[in-house]
Amino acid sequence: MAKAGEIVRLRARLAEADATLRALLGGDVDSVVVPGKHGDRVFTLHGAEHAYRVLIESMNEGALALTSDKMILYANQCFARMVKCPLEQVTGSSFRRFLSAGDRATLRSLMKRVAQSGAKIPVLLKVSDGSQLPAQISLRPLARNGINRATIGMVVTDLTESRRTEELLRALTHRVVQVQEAERGRVALELHDNITQLLCAVLFRSQALADNLAGRAGPAKREAVKLREMLGQAAGEVERITRNLRPGALDQLGLVDVLRDTSREFANRTGTSVKLTCVELVARLPADTELTLYRILQEALQNVEQHARARHVTVCLSLAGAFVQLAITDDGIGFDATHHAARRKAKGVLGLLGMHERAASVDGVLTVKSGRRAGTKIEVRIPLPAGTAAAN
Ligand SMILES: Nc1ncnc2c1ncn2[C@@H]1O[C@H](COP(=O)(O)OP(=O)(O)OP(=O)(O)O)[C@@H](O)[C@H]1O
Ligand SMILES: [Mg+2]
Fold first, then answer.
1. Atom of ligand 1 at shortest distance to CA of 330?
2. DSSP-assigned letters across all residues of 211-264
3. Prediction pTM value
Protein backbone atom coordinates (compact mmCIF):
# COMPACT_ATOMS: atom_id res chain seq x y z
CA MET A 1 0.00 0.00 0.00
CA ALA A 2 2.82 2.28 0.95
CA LYS A 3 4.23 1.66 -2.50
CA ALA A 4 1.01 2.72 -4.28
CA GLY A 5 0.95 5.98 -2.21
CA GLU A 6 4.57 6.64 -3.16
CA ILE A 7 3.74 6.15 -6.85
CA VAL A 8 0.85 8.63 -6.63
CA ARG A 9 3.09 11.18 -4.92
CA LEU A 10 5.84 10.68 -7.50
CA ARG A 11 3.32 11.04 -10.33
CA ALA A 12 2.08 14.32 -8.85
CA ARG A 13 5.68 15.60 -8.57
CA LEU A 14 6.37 14.54 -12.13
CA ALA A 15 3.28 16.40 -13.37
CA GLU A 16 4.40 19.49 -11.45
CA ALA A 17 7.92 19.25 -12.92
CA ASP A 18 6.45 18.80 -16.38
CA ALA A 19 4.27 21.92 -15.97
CA THR A 20 7.29 23.92 -14.74
CA LEU A 21 9.37 22.76 -17.68
CA ARG A 22 6.59 23.75 -20.10
CA ALA A 23 6.35 27.19 -18.51
CA LEU A 24 10.13 27.62 -18.76
CA LEU A 25 10.19 26.56 -22.42
CA GLY A 26 7.19 28.76 -23.22
CA GLY A 27 8.97 31.81 -21.82
CA ASP A 28 6.26 32.39 -19.15
CA VAL A 29 8.79 32.40 -16.33
CA ASP A 30 10.99 35.41 -15.57
CA SER A 31 13.15 33.90 -12.89
CA VAL A 32 13.60 30.83 -10.73
CA VAL A 33 14.40 30.89 -7.03
CA VAL A 34 16.55 27.96 -5.89
CA PRO A 35 16.91 27.47 -2.13
CA GLY A 36 20.46 26.73 -1.00
CA LYS A 37 22.70 26.48 2.03
CA HIS A 38 23.44 30.21 1.96
CA GLY A 39 19.91 31.33 1.22
CA ASP A 40 17.82 31.55 -1.96
CA ARG A 41 19.50 32.15 -5.32
CA VAL A 42 17.59 33.85 -8.15
CA PHE A 43 18.19 32.74 -11.75
CA THR A 44 16.86 35.15 -14.38
CA LEU A 45 15.23 33.55 -17.44
CA HIS A 46 13.95 34.60 -20.86
CA GLY A 47 10.82 36.30 -19.64
CA ALA A 48 13.08 39.00 -18.23
CA GLU A 49 13.76 40.04 -21.83
CA HIS A 50 10.45 41.85 -21.72
CA ALA A 51 12.23 45.18 -21.20
CA TYR A 52 14.37 44.54 -24.29
CA ARG A 53 11.30 43.70 -26.30
CA VAL A 54 9.69 47.02 -25.38
CA LEU A 55 12.90 48.77 -26.40
CA ILE A 56 13.10 46.91 -29.71
CA GLU A 57 9.45 47.64 -30.49
CA SER A 58 10.04 51.35 -29.97
CA MET A 59 13.10 51.36 -32.26
CA ASN A 60 13.09 53.32 -35.49
CA GLU A 61 14.82 50.44 -37.24
CA GLY A 62 13.67 46.99 -38.18
CA ALA A 63 14.82 44.27 -35.79
CA LEU A 64 14.57 40.57 -36.57
CA ALA A 65 15.68 37.23 -35.23
CA LEU A 66 16.23 34.56 -37.89
CA THR A 67 16.98 30.87 -37.93
CA SER A 68 20.02 29.74 -39.89
CA ASP A 69 17.74 29.00 -42.89
CA LYS A 70 16.48 32.62 -42.74
CA MET A 71 13.07 31.91 -41.26
CA ILE A 72 11.82 34.94 -39.32
CA LEU A 73 11.19 33.95 -35.70
CA TYR A 74 10.69 37.48 -34.54
CA ALA A 75 10.26 40.86 -36.21
CA ASN A 76 9.31 44.20 -34.74
CA GLN A 77 6.51 46.47 -35.94
CA CYS A 78 8.95 48.87 -37.55
CA PHE A 79 10.10 46.15 -39.97
CA ALA A 80 6.49 45.23 -40.76
CA ARG A 81 5.83 48.90 -41.57
CA MET A 82 8.92 49.07 -43.82
CA VAL A 83 7.77 46.15 -45.95
CA LYS A 84 4.10 47.18 -45.60
CA CYS A 85 3.11 43.69 -44.49
CA PRO A 86 1.11 42.70 -41.36
CA LEU A 87 3.42 41.47 -38.62
CA GLU A 88 1.61 38.12 -38.35
CA GLN A 89 2.41 37.47 -42.02
CA VAL A 90 6.03 38.47 -41.53
CA THR A 91 6.67 36.21 -38.55
CA GLY A 92 7.20 32.62 -39.60
CA SER A 93 7.91 33.48 -43.23
CA SER A 94 11.28 33.44 -44.96
CA PHE A 95 13.32 36.64 -45.00
CA ARG A 96 14.23 35.78 -48.60
CA ARG A 97 10.78 36.88 -49.81
CA PHE A 98 11.80 40.49 -49.12
CA LEU A 99 14.94 40.29 -51.28
CA SER A 100 15.75 40.29 -54.98
CA ALA A 101 17.60 37.28 -56.42
CA GLY A 102 20.91 39.21 -56.37
CA ASP A 103 20.52 40.30 -52.76
CA ARG A 104 19.55 36.74 -51.75
CA ALA A 105 22.84 35.45 -53.14
CA THR A 106 24.79 38.17 -51.29
CA LEU A 107 22.96 37.38 -48.05
CA ARG A 108 23.59 33.66 -48.49
CA SER A 109 27.35 34.09 -48.69
CA LEU A 110 27.23 36.60 -45.86
CA MET A 111 25.32 34.23 -43.57
CA LYS A 112 28.15 31.74 -43.93
CA ARG A 113 30.61 34.25 -42.54
CA VAL A 114 28.30 35.85 -40.01
CA ALA A 115 28.67 33.01 -37.56
CA GLN A 116 32.07 34.42 -36.65
CA SER A 117 31.45 38.14 -36.89
CA GLY A 118 28.89 40.77 -37.78
CA ALA A 119 28.42 42.15 -41.28
CA LYS A 120 26.52 44.86 -43.11
CA ILE A 121 25.15 44.97 -46.65
CA PRO A 122 23.06 47.43 -48.62
CA VAL A 123 19.95 45.83 -50.17
CA LEU A 124 16.75 46.81 -51.93
CA LEU A 125 13.87 45.42 -49.86
CA LYS A 126 10.82 44.24 -51.79
CA VAL A 127 7.81 46.02 -50.34
CA SER A 128 4.40 44.34 -50.56
CA ASP A 129 2.97 47.18 -52.70
CA GLY A 130 5.55 46.36 -55.42
CA SER A 131 7.93 49.21 -54.58
CA GLN A 132 11.52 48.86 -53.37
CA LEU A 133 13.08 50.29 -50.27
CA PRO A 134 16.83 50.98 -50.06
CA ALA A 135 18.05 49.58 -46.76
CA GLN A 136 21.11 48.41 -44.94
CA ILE A 137 21.00 45.13 -43.11
CA SER A 138 23.38 44.44 -40.26
CA LEU A 139 23.79 40.87 -39.12
CA ARG A 140 24.98 39.63 -35.76
CA PRO A 141 25.32 36.06 -34.58
CA LEU A 142 23.10 35.36 -31.55
CA ALA A 143 24.17 33.19 -28.65
CA ARG A 144 22.56 29.74 -28.97
CA ASN A 145 21.19 28.26 -25.80
CA GLY A 146 19.43 25.10 -26.82
CA ILE A 147 15.89 26.43 -26.47
CA ASN A 148 16.02 29.36 -28.81
CA ARG A 149 16.39 28.50 -32.48
CA ALA A 150 17.29 32.06 -33.48
CA THR A 151 20.87 32.18 -34.67
CA ILE A 152 21.01 35.52 -36.43
CA GLY A 153 20.02 38.93 -35.16
CA MET A 154 19.30 41.47 -37.87
CA VAL A 155 18.85 45.24 -37.81
CA VAL A 156 17.34 46.81 -40.92
CA THR A 157 17.94 50.53 -41.48
CA ASP A 158 15.82 52.48 -43.93
CA LEU A 159 18.21 54.38 -46.24
CA THR A 160 15.57 56.36 -48.17
CA GLU A 161 16.41 59.63 -46.42
CA SER A 162 20.16 59.24 -46.63
CA ARG A 163 19.91 58.30 -50.34
CA ARG A 164 17.88 61.46 -50.91
CA THR A 165 20.49 63.52 -49.07
CA GLU A 166 23.28 61.90 -51.12
CA GLU A 167 21.45 62.79 -54.33
CA LEU A 168 20.98 66.37 -53.16
CA LEU A 169 24.64 66.60 -52.24
CA ARG A 170 25.64 65.26 -55.62
CA ALA A 171 23.41 67.78 -57.41
CA LEU A 172 24.90 70.52 -55.26
CA THR A 173 28.46 69.40 -55.99
CA HIS A 174 27.64 69.40 -59.67
CA ARG A 175 26.33 72.92 -59.34
CA VAL A 176 29.45 74.05 -57.45
CA VAL A 177 31.63 72.70 -60.24
CA GLN A 178 29.49 74.48 -62.86
CA VAL A 179 29.60 77.76 -60.93
CA GLN A 180 33.36 77.42 -60.48
CA GLU A 181 33.78 76.93 -64.23
CA ALA A 182 31.56 79.94 -65.00
CA GLU A 183 33.52 82.06 -62.53
CA ARG A 184 36.83 80.95 -64.03
CA GLY A 185 35.51 81.90 -67.45
CA ARG A 186 34.54 85.35 -66.17
CA VAL A 187 37.95 85.93 -64.55
CA ALA A 188 39.69 84.74 -67.73
CA LEU A 189 37.67 87.21 -69.79
CA GLU A 190 38.47 90.08 -67.42
CA LEU A 191 42.17 89.17 -67.50
CA HIS A 192 42.15 89.01 -71.26
CA ASP A 193 40.14 92.18 -71.84
CA ASN A 194 41.93 94.34 -69.28
CA ILE A 195 45.27 93.06 -68.02
CA THR A 196 46.47 91.39 -71.23
CA GLN A 197 45.52 94.42 -73.34
CA LEU A 198 47.23 96.76 -70.89
CA LEU A 199 50.34 94.59 -70.67
CA CYS A 200 50.59 94.49 -74.45
CA ALA A 201 50.41 98.29 -74.62
CA VAL A 202 53.11 98.66 -71.93
CA LEU A 203 55.23 96.03 -73.65
CA PHE A 204 54.92 97.93 -76.91
CA ARG A 205 56.03 101.16 -75.23
CA SER A 206 58.92 99.51 -73.42
CA GLN A 207 60.03 98.13 -76.79
CA ALA A 208 59.88 101.70 -78.22
CA LEU A 209 61.89 102.94 -75.23
CA ALA A 210 64.53 100.24 -75.70
CA ASP A 211 64.70 101.11 -79.44
CA ASN A 212 65.16 104.81 -78.66
CA LEU A 213 68.03 103.99 -76.36
CA ALA A 214 69.55 101.63 -78.88
CA GLY A 215 72.48 103.85 -79.82
CA ARG A 216 73.51 104.41 -76.23
CA ALA A 217 75.38 102.34 -73.73
CA GLY A 218 75.01 102.50 -70.00
CA PRO A 219 72.56 101.59 -67.21
CA ALA A 220 69.47 103.33 -68.71
CA LYS A 221 69.55 101.13 -71.80
CA ARG A 222 70.20 97.96 -69.79
CA GLU A 223 67.24 98.80 -67.58
CA ALA A 224 65.00 99.42 -70.61
CA VAL A 225 65.95 96.06 -72.14
CA LYS A 226 65.43 94.28 -68.82
CA LEU A 227 62.08 96.01 -68.40
CA ARG A 228 60.92 94.83 -71.82
CA GLU A 229 62.00 91.27 -71.04
CA MET A 230 60.19 91.21 -67.72
CA LEU A 231 57.04 92.63 -69.24
CA GLY A 232 57.22 89.97 -71.92
CA GLN A 233 57.42 87.29 -69.20
CA ALA A 234 54.51 88.85 -67.30
CA ALA A 235 52.38 88.89 -70.47
CA GLY A 236 53.27 85.26 -71.13
CA GLU A 237 52.36 84.27 -67.57
CA VAL A 238 49.00 86.07 -67.72
CA GLU A 239 48.32 84.38 -71.04
CA ARG A 240 49.09 80.96 -69.48
CA ILE A 241 46.84 81.61 -66.48
CA THR A 242 44.04 82.80 -68.77
CA ARG A 243 44.36 79.67 -70.90
CA ASN A 244 44.27 77.45 -67.82
CA LEU A 245 41.24 79.25 -66.46
CA ARG A 246 39.23 78.92 -69.63
CA PRO A 247 40.07 75.78 -71.56
CA GLY A 248 38.73 77.03 -74.90
CA ALA A 249 41.31 74.77 -76.54
CA LEU A 250 39.34 71.72 -75.40
CA ASP A 251 36.57 72.60 -77.84
CA GLN A 252 38.92 73.24 -80.74
CA LEU A 253 41.68 70.67 -80.23
CA GLY A 254 40.00 67.89 -78.28
CA LEU A 255 41.04 66.19 -75.07
CA VAL A 256 44.14 64.31 -76.22
CA ASP A 257 45.86 67.38 -77.72
CA VAL A 258 45.04 69.49 -74.69
CA LEU A 259 46.45 66.85 -72.32
CA ARG A 260 49.56 66.77 -74.51
CA ASP A 261 49.95 70.58 -74.50
CA THR A 262 49.41 70.76 -70.76
CA SER A 263 51.99 68.04 -70.08
CA ARG A 264 54.52 69.62 -72.46
CA GLU A 265 54.06 73.08 -70.98
CA PHE A 266 54.48 71.62 -67.47
CA ALA A 267 57.65 69.76 -68.43
CA ASN A 268 59.19 72.84 -70.10
CA ARG A 269 58.35 75.14 -67.24
CA THR A 270 59.33 72.91 -64.31
CA GLY A 271 62.07 70.72 -65.82
CA THR A 272 60.25 67.56 -64.63
CA SER A 273 60.07 64.89 -67.34
CA VAL A 274 56.54 63.92 -68.35
CA LYS A 275 55.72 60.76 -70.27
CA LEU A 276 52.26 60.81 -71.79
CA THR A 277 50.41 57.83 -73.25
CA CYS A 278 46.96 58.36 -74.66
CA VAL A 279 44.50 55.98 -76.17
CA GLU A 280 43.18 57.28 -79.47
CA LEU A 281 39.50 58.03 -79.20
CA VAL A 282 37.26 57.58 -82.22
CA ALA A 283 34.61 59.87 -80.83
CA ARG A 284 34.63 62.89 -78.57
CA LEU A 285 33.86 62.21 -74.93
CA PRO A 286 31.03 64.15 -73.30
CA ALA A 287 32.11 67.76 -72.69
CA ASP A 288 31.71 67.37 -68.89
CA THR A 289 33.98 64.32 -68.89
CA GLU A 290 36.67 66.01 -70.99
CA LEU A 291 36.65 69.08 -68.76
CA THR A 292 36.81 66.92 -65.61
CA LEU A 293 39.82 64.97 -66.91
CA TYR A 294 41.59 68.15 -67.96
CA ARG A 295 40.97 69.87 -64.61
CA ILE A 296 42.15 66.82 -62.68
CA LEU A 297 45.36 66.70 -64.70
CA GLN A 298 45.93 70.41 -64.04
CA GLU A 299 45.33 70.02 -60.31
CA ALA A 300 47.49 66.88 -60.07
CA LEU A 301 50.39 68.53 -61.94
CA GLN A 302 50.08 71.57 -59.72
CA ASN A 303 50.45 69.29 -56.69
CA VAL A 304 53.47 67.63 -58.25
CA GLU A 305 55.04 71.04 -58.76
CA GLN A 306 54.22 72.31 -55.28
CA HIS A 307 54.76 69.23 -53.12
CA ALA A 308 56.22 66.17 -54.82
CA ARG A 309 59.85 67.00 -55.63
CA ALA A 310 59.46 64.44 -58.41
CA ARG A 311 61.82 63.81 -61.32
CA HIS A 312 59.44 61.88 -63.54
CA VAL A 313 55.70 62.00 -64.09
CA THR A 314 53.63 59.66 -66.24
CA VAL A 315 50.21 60.58 -67.54
CA CYS A 316 48.11 57.81 -69.01
CA LEU A 317 44.70 58.10 -70.65
CA SER A 318 43.12 54.73 -71.33
CA LEU A 319 39.83 52.95 -71.89
CA ALA A 320 38.86 50.02 -69.71
CA GLY A 321 35.54 48.44 -70.62
CA ALA A 322 32.89 51.12 -70.36
CA PHE A 323 35.17 53.52 -68.51
CA VAL A 324 37.72 56.15 -69.41
CA GLN A 325 40.66 56.34 -67.03
CA LEU A 326 43.29 58.94 -66.41
CA ALA A 327 46.25 58.14 -64.16
CA ILE A 328 48.91 60.64 -63.10
CA THR A 329 51.87 59.04 -61.36
CA ASP A 330 54.93 60.76 -59.92
CA ASP A 331 58.10 59.43 -58.29
CA GLY A 332 58.23 62.14 -55.64
CA ILE A 333 58.22 62.16 -51.85
CA GLY A 334 54.58 61.05 -51.54
CA PHE A 335 52.38 61.66 -48.50
CA ASP A 336 50.11 59.82 -46.11
CA ALA A 337 46.86 59.82 -48.10
CA THR A 338 44.80 58.14 -45.36
CA HIS A 339 45.35 60.81 -42.71
CA HIS A 340 45.08 63.55 -45.22
CA ALA A 341 41.30 63.96 -45.58
CA ALA A 342 40.52 65.26 -42.09
CA ARG A 343 43.46 67.66 -42.08
CA ARG A 344 42.50 69.01 -45.46
CA LYS A 345 38.93 69.74 -44.40
CA ALA A 346 40.28 71.61 -41.41
CA LYS A 347 42.52 73.69 -43.66
CA GLY A 348 39.66 74.32 -46.05
CA VAL A 349 41.75 73.73 -49.18
CA LEU A 350 40.16 72.39 -52.31
CA GLY A 351 42.88 70.52 -54.21
CA LEU A 352 42.31 66.78 -53.75
CA LEU A 353 38.80 67.34 -52.41
CA GLY A 354 37.98 69.33 -55.54
CA MET A 355 39.30 66.46 -57.69
CA HIS A 356 37.09 63.96 -55.85
CA GLU A 357 34.09 66.21 -56.28
CA ARG A 358 34.74 66.84 -59.94
CA ALA A 359 34.98 63.10 -60.52
CA ALA A 360 31.76 62.49 -58.58
CA SER A 361 29.94 65.17 -60.57
CA VAL A 362 30.29 62.96 -63.69
CA ASP A 363 29.61 59.71 -61.74
CA GLY A 364 33.30 58.91 -61.66
CA VAL A 365 35.57 57.77 -58.84
CA LEU A 366 38.96 59.16 -57.94
CA THR A 367 41.54 57.17 -56.01
CA VAL A 368 44.74 58.46 -54.46
CA LYS A 369 47.58 56.05 -53.74
CA SER A 370 50.55 57.55 -52.01
CA GLY A 371 53.06 56.72 -49.38
CA ARG A 372 55.98 58.52 -47.84
CA ARG A 373 58.93 58.32 -50.27
CA ALA A 374 56.83 56.07 -52.53
CA GLY A 375 55.46 58.61 -55.00
CA THR A 376 51.83 59.37 -55.71
CA LYS A 377 49.27 57.99 -58.13
CA ILE A 378 46.02 59.79 -58.84
CA GLU A 379 43.57 57.76 -60.86
CA VAL A 380 40.14 58.77 -62.06
CA ARG A 381 37.64 56.41 -63.65
CA ILE A 382 34.57 57.79 -65.37
CA PRO A 383 31.77 55.78 -67.01
CA LEU A 384 31.33 56.36 -70.73
CA PRO A 385 28.18 56.55 -72.77
CA ALA A 386 27.63 53.51 -75.00
CA GLY A 387 29.40 53.65 -78.38
CA THR A 388 32.55 55.49 -77.25
CA ALA A 389 35.51 53.32 -78.21
CA ALA A 390 39.19 53.48 -78.99
CA ALA A 391 40.64 53.64 -82.48
CA ASN A 392 42.71 50.63 -83.52
N1 LIG B 1 51.85 64.53 -55.71
C2 LIG B 1 52.02 64.81 -54.40
N3 LIG B 1 53.21 64.54 -53.81
C4 LIG B 1 53.41 64.78 -52.49
N5 LIG B 1 52.47 65.31 -51.68
C6 LIG B 1 51.27 65.61 -52.20
C7 LIG B 1 50.97 65.37 -53.58
N8 LIG B 1 49.70 65.74 -53.82
C9 LIG B 1 49.22 66.19 -52.64
N10 LIG B 1 50.16 66.12 -51.67
C11 LIG B 1 49.99 66.44 -50.25
O12 LIG B 1 48.63 66.50 -49.98
C13 LIG B 1 48.28 67.77 -49.47
C14 LIG B 1 46.92 68.18 -49.96
O15 LIG B 1 46.90 68.44 -51.35
P16 LIG B 1 45.77 69.37 -51.90
O17 LIG B 1 45.96 69.52 -53.37
O18 LIG B 1 44.46 68.86 -51.42
O19 LIG B 1 46.00 70.74 -51.15
P20 LIG B 1 47.18 71.78 -51.36
O21 LIG B 1 47.91 71.47 -52.63
O22 LIG B 1 47.97 71.83 -50.11
O23 LIG B 1 46.35 73.13 -51.51
P24 LIG B 1 45.60 73.66 -52.85
O25 LIG B 1 45.53 72.52 -53.83
O26 LIG B 1 44.26 74.08 -52.40
O27 LIG B 1 46.46 74.76 -53.34
C28 LIG B 1 49.38 68.70 -49.91
O29 LIG B 1 49.51 69.79 -49.02
C30 LIG B 1 50.58 67.78 -49.88
O31 LIG B 1 51.08 67.68 -48.58
MG1 LIG C 1 46.87 71.16 -54.46
1. 1
2. HHTTT--SHHHHHHHHHHHHHHHHHHHHHHHHHHHS-HHHHHH-HHHHHHHHHH
3. 0.64
Mutate to test the pocket of ligand 1, among 303, 315, 366, 372 (most ligand atoms within 8 A of CB): 303
Q: What is the pLDDT of residues 171-215, one digit of tens each?
A: 887 788 888 888 988 898 888 888 888 998 998 898 888 888 877
Model pLDDT for residues 202-254, shown as the tens digit of each residue: 988 988 888 888 777 788 888 888 888 999 999 988 988 888 887 777 888 88
Which residue's CA lies nearest to atom 17 of ligand 1? Answer: 351
Count Cβ neighbours within 10 Å for each residue of 245-269 and write b for 16 or more, e otherwise.
bbbeebeeeebeebbbebbeebbee
Q: Which atom of ligand 1 is nearest to the CA of 354?
A: 18
Cα separation, 117 vs 97, in Å, equals: 24
Number of alpha carbons in the 13 Å side-chain half-sphere of residue 353:
13
Cα distances from 368 to residues 340, 344, 353, in angstroms, run 11, 14, 11
| Whole-number Cα distances in Å, 175 to 127, 128, 168, 225, 285 | 34, 37, 10, 48, 20
CA of 194 to the centre of ligand 1 (A): 32
d(Cα 67, Cα 1) in Å, to the nearest integer? 52
Integer CA distances (angstroms), 367 to 165, 317, 356, 357, in order: 23, 15, 8, 12
* DSSP 8-class letter at 94: B
Q: 307 C-alpha to center of ligand 1: Å?
A: 6
Is 216:210 a contact under the CB 8 Å cutoff? no
Task: Return all residues near 171 (Cβ < 8 A) that are at least 6 apart.
Answer: none
126 close to 93: Cβ distance less than 8 angstroms: no
| Ligand 1 pocket at CB < 6 A | 303-304, 306-308, 330, 332-335, 340, 344, 349-352, 376
CB 232 within 8 A of CB 217: no
The rounded distance, in Å, linking the Cα atoms of 256 and 324 is: 12
Protein residue whose Cα sits closest to atom 30 of ligand 1: 307
